[in-house]
Amino acid sequence: MDNFQVYLSENLDKYTALAKFMEQAFEWEIMDYTFYPYYWANRKSWQEFYLTESMDPLFRSFLQAGMARIIVTVKPGFENAVQFFLETGLIWNGGAVPVIGDPMYMSIVEEMRQPTGEAQGKYWITRVPTTLTILQDKSTGLPVDEPLPIFPETDPKNCENPSELETKTSFRLDEDSQLQHGEKDTSTLG
């Protein structure tokens, strides 16, 4: 113990701040966990996990687990601080915590969703692949006017080729040829 020395640095301060935050923000006493079998881990580790032994059965279950799910509740009053930590990886040490929905805070995802430029030129028609599922009127309990829905454009003049816009479906809704359940005397099942 004569050579024992504690290195005080910025990394130690960050680590102790993280430890303090984790201890204060979560209710570790009521943690819930589930261990999953060894085969949920990397295949190369299966034998090592499976053959691990310990006298403590709970610790052995931990060592042999290929994966674990842990649920830890947040202490009341720390909800916003934990949400900020999960979003940014930073510990909020004072003042009001900027949270999602606050006008002073905008997440990077929200920032990317909002376009910064203006549209240039007219839009083009884009065809999206579909499974070509055609709806039967009242087959799902909902009445339909068209077998394939058409979403008319609000401003056709803004389209590059307005003549190619579809205003009505090319399929017809034939109410006389809808599928219906069979009668007992016409059924092939007997």
Present the secondary structure layout.
Elements: H1 10-25, E1 26-36, H2 46-51, H3 57-64, E2 67-74, H4 79-88, H5 108-113
Give the key terms.
single chain, 190 residues, two-stranded antiparallel ribbon, 10% strand
Count of beta strands: 2
Please outline the major beta sheet. 2 strands, antiparallel
* Strand residue content: 5-15%
How does the overall form come out from the CA principal axes?
Answer: extended
Rounded mean pLDDT is 74
Rg is: 31 Å
Output the number of helix runs: 5
Estimated helix fraction: 10-25%
> Biggest sheet: strands side by side, in what order?
1-2
Enumerate the spans where pLDDT stays under 50 for 5 or more consecutive residues.
none
The termini sit apart by: 91 Å
Structural class designation: alpha+beta
Write a structural description:
The chain is α+β, with helices and mostly antiparallel strands and 190 residues long. The chain folds into 2 domains: 10-113, no CATH class; 118-174, no CATH class. Helix content is 24%, strand content 10%. The chain is built from 5 helices and 2 strands; from the N terminus they run αβααβαα. The protein has helices at residues 10-25, 46-51, 57-64, 79-88, 108-113, and strands at 26-36, 67-74. A two-stranded antiparallel sheet has the order 1-2. The longest helix has 16 residues, at 10-25. The N and C termini lie far apart (91 Å). The relative contact order is 0.09.
Can you describe this structure in just a few lines?
By secondary structure, the protein is of the alpha+beta class.
